[in-house]
Design brief:
Length: 248
């Protein structure tokens, strides 16, 4: 009996392997303008493991298929993994221009905007590697300070090591914040053609305003199963049915 189970499992594995989609096949379908085929291929690849590149390519395939909502959703997912990628941001902006709701973000204090732009230069893995590199440089410079006989090199080693330690702490902080964004995903995209944002989490609640597909919202209250409190880029808030949104 065990032998039969082993043979069946091996046979099943060989069938799955034989029919596994490769990225080259997905890319080929896209370049040949078989966009629906490319969508299925990229989604199959994402089931095996996520990456910014796959989400970006899937977003492009949806965009070419005129499914702007799904394009935005996948561009946003790609941006979470690679926040410093200019191509992703550019294509996301193009897709947003085709949505119905045109929301102007609220003005943040310039230091907050500046800080966020620095944190989003790289993703969590890149910041982690940066931390390791600057830590190694800190060790080298500290050794220069300890063993150099020249005063100029001692000063270079001391202050250089101090600077690298500061950069090491900042890189770890930025990596932690990027990790938190990935772990606690509060962004969502409206997937319903049109949905009402309510004053209370109930169908009989007062309609505050309507949103259309492709609009991004931030979930501010995730405690309820069927309703989520959301905030828009322009600061408006309300409750929306979970059936009308999909989490990034």
């Amino acid at each position: 009996m065990k032998r039969l189970i082993f043979i069946f499992s091996l046979f099943h594995f060989l069938i799955v392997t034989a029919h596994a989609v490769t990225k080259q096949e997905a890319d080929s379908a896209y370049t040949q303008q078989h966009y629906q085929e490319a969508v299925k291929a990229y989604e199959a690849l994402l089931e095996q493991g996520v990456s910014a590149d796959l989400y970006y390519n899937l977003g492009n395939a949806y965009y070419r298929s005129d499914n702007i909502t799904r394009a935005i959703l996948n561009y946003e997912r790609a941006l979470l993994l690679s926040p410093g990628d200019g191509d992703i941001r550019h294509n996301l902006q193009l897709a947003r221009q085709k949505t119905t709701d045109k929301l102007a973000p609220g003005a943040d204090f310039f230091l907050v905007t500046w800080y966020r732009s620095i944190v989003n230069i790289m993703g969590v893995d890149a910041w982690a590697w940066t931390a390791l590199v600057v830590l190694a440089l800190a060790v080298v410079l500290f050794l220069v300070y300890l063993f150099s006989q020249r005063v100029a090199l001692q000063k270079l080693g001391f202050f250089g090591a101090a600077l690298m330690v500061v950069l090491f702490l900042l890189a770890n902080l930025f990596a932690y914040q990027q990790k938190q964004v990935l772990t606690n995903r509060t962004g969502a995209i409206v997937i319903a053609a049109e949905t009402s944002v309510k004053s209370t989490p109930a169908q009989n609640g007062t309609d505050l305003f309507k949103l259309h597909e492709g609009t991004k919202v931030e979930i501010t209250d995730d405690s309820m199963k069927d309703w989520k409190e959301v905030r828009l880029l322009d600061g408006k808030q309300g409750w929306i049915s979970v059936n009308g949104i999909e989490r990034i």
